[in-house]
Design brief:
Blueprint lengths: L1 H4 L2 H19 L5 H12 L5 H18 L1 H7 L13 H7 L3 H34 L4 H13 L9 H15 L2 E2 L6 E2 L13 H20 L17 H10 L1 H15 L5 H16 L11 H17 L1 H7 L5 H12 L8 H4 L1 H30 L6 H20 L2 H19 L5 H23 L6 H4 L1 H28 L1
Helix pairs in contact: 2-3, 2-4, 2-18, 3-4, 3-16, 4-14, 4-18, 5-6, 5-7, 6-7, 7-11, 7-12, 7-14, 7-15, 7-18, 8-21, 8-23, 9-21, 10-19, 10-20, 12-13, 12-14, 13-14, 19-20
Length: about 500
């Protein structure tokens, strides 16, 4: 089995696909989903299914990791799952520790992925059965729990974080009504019928606003993401830092796998949930957002683990865990592989091949990711003014390429100004993106649930999983205040 995978005709396309994933993930506007969609047609020309599956699996994991590279250096998330890296990762870069942050990122992505694959191999059937228990009522509370993380990523200001999340949810209502199909807030523009694109909004808020800030401050050196602290940017320093936070890696990876196993949740929700969980339980929670190592470790360990988790419902029940595995399911059908409960009995060898490919992809991620880090690091040799011009060009290209729409470029520009204004008023941007992403999930599930229950809210409260999620939500808000009241007694 292993000898069939470690063949040159498998390894060579596999590595090329992973390098392609690094490129796509590091380019703002080009998502991991797009990378997988582009590689699937190429994989059909490979001589055997293992080669094609290796390419698809390799791209999905590397693109998720690579999205953290521009998020750390330039504060532009390469993928939605990398938005959390714009917080502590970018702050470390501004302190001259970009190399340290990204080396930690790379190693934790590998470790998180390995833990996720191990859980996929060990408990896939059990987790998939649990995920199937989620109905509209449970998904509503899951989305609300994700939104509660806006209080976590708001640098200690819960009210401003919730305000930003509310703005994001309001923007998510633009387009066609989920139930009736009526137009909402489109103002007669057909471009808004599909809603505001997450990618153009995200690029505008994080990327263009940074360009505007640089222009307004005259490209001050204190805003430059550099690698000035050479002694602290080694791989050994990264390994030592990870070892000090080994429990954070384990907790985040397990949480990421569990969230990834829930259909529709995805790596972006997993990253924010892990970040929020770590900040809520950390003794240095108030330092998150200022360059805290644990704030880098938690989301990057979770998002790659979530990619593995998404394969659990996909393989066992044929239900895609996210957009990437939805494309993968189509590819499996083309290879005449039928996911479902019987796949472990009828085609065990193919399942084991998928497991091994996912596992070895995590190991190959280290050299491929390191090459990506070194290549992107050359940007630091350029003057900041040139970097900002490149950021603006990539922002325009990334926004336009998604739907070949000039309107998306206008959206990006408008939200660049919005981002600059909000940050000037100390309103955090990350909760806004979270609200935009989770808003449709909240609305669809609450409205569908109310239709099912004929207007009764009781199913949202009395179902066991709903009750647990509601308690976790209350704990997320009340936990920090209770912890602060108890901490002085412990510190005496």
């Amino acid at each position: 089995m292993l000898s069939d995978i470690l063949q040159i005709h498998v390894l060579f396309p596999w590595l090329l696909a992973m390098l392609f994933g690094i490129f796509v993930g590091a380019t703002p506007g080009l998502t991991a989903t797009m990378a997988v969609a582009l590689i699937v047609p190429v994989s059909f020309y490979m001589p055997d299914p293992n080669t094609g599956l290796a390419m698809i699996i390799g791209v999905s994991f590397t693109a998720i990791f690579a999205g953290d590279i521009p998020a750390t250096y330039l504060r532009i998330p390469g993928t939605p799952a990398s938005a959390a890296a714009t917080l502590d990762g970018h702050q470390l870069a501004r302190q001259g520790k970009a190399g340290l942050s990204l080396r930690i990122d790379l190693i934790c992505s590998c470790i998180g992925g390995i833990i996720g694959v191990a859980l996929l191999m060990l408990i896939a059937p059990q987790l998939a059965r649990f995920a199937l228990r989620f109905s509209n009522y449970e998904y509503f509370w899951l989305a609300m729990f994700g939104l509660s993380m806006s209080a976590v990523v708001s640098s200690g200001n819960t009210r401003r974080g919730l305000l930003a999340a509310a703005i994001g949810m309001l923007m998510a209502t633009v387009g066609l009504d989920i139930v009736s199909g009526a137009q909402r807030f489109t103002f007669g523009s057909h471009n808004l019928m599909g809603g505001l694109g997450v990618i153009p909004v995200m690029i505008g808020l994080f990327g263009v606003s940074e360009v505007i800030r640089s222009v307004m401050t005259g490209f001050n050196k204190d805003t430059q993401a550099t690698d000035s602290s050479k002694g602290e940017n080694t791989s050994l320093a990264a390994i030592i830092a990870i070892w000090k936070h080994k429990l954070t890696v384990l907790k985040a990876a397990i949480a990421g796998t569990l969230i990834g196993a829930l259909p529709g949740a995805g790596a972006d929700i997993a990253a924010w949930a892990a970040y929020g969980m770590e900040q809520r339980t950390s003794k240095k929670g108030e330092k998150f957002g200022t360059g805290e190592i644990a704030g880098v470790i938690a989301p990057t360990s979770a998002n790659n683990a979530a990619v593995s988790g998404a394969w659990i419902p996909a393989l066992v029940f044929g239900i895609p865990g996210d957009a990437v595995t939805a494309i993968v399911l189509g590819a499996l059908m083309m290879y005449e592989i039928k996911p479902g409960p019987l796949i472990f009995q009828q085609n065990p060898e193919q399942v084991h091949s998928i497991f091994l490919l996912a596992l070895f992809t995590q190991l190959l991620l280290l050299p491929c990711g390191y090459l990506g880090l070194k290549s992107f690091g050359y940007l630091l040799r350029l003057p900041r003014s040139m970097i900002m011009v490149a950021v603006l060009v990539f922002s325009v290209v990334g926004s336009y390429s998604l739907r070949n729409s000039v309107f998306d470029v206008y959206v990006m520009a408008v939200f660049g100004l919005v981002g600059y204004f909000l940050e000037a008023k100390r309103v955090p941007l990350a909760p806004l993106i979270l609200g935009l992403i989770l808003g449709p999930m909240v609305e669809e599930n609450v409205r569908t649930g109310l239709i099912k229950s004929e207007g009764s809210i009781l199913p949202f409260l009395n179902r066991p999983i709903c009750t647990v999620l509601l308690l976790l939500l209350l704990l997320a808000f009340l936990g920090p205040s209770l912890y602060r009241k108890m901490r002085p007694k412990d510190s005496k």
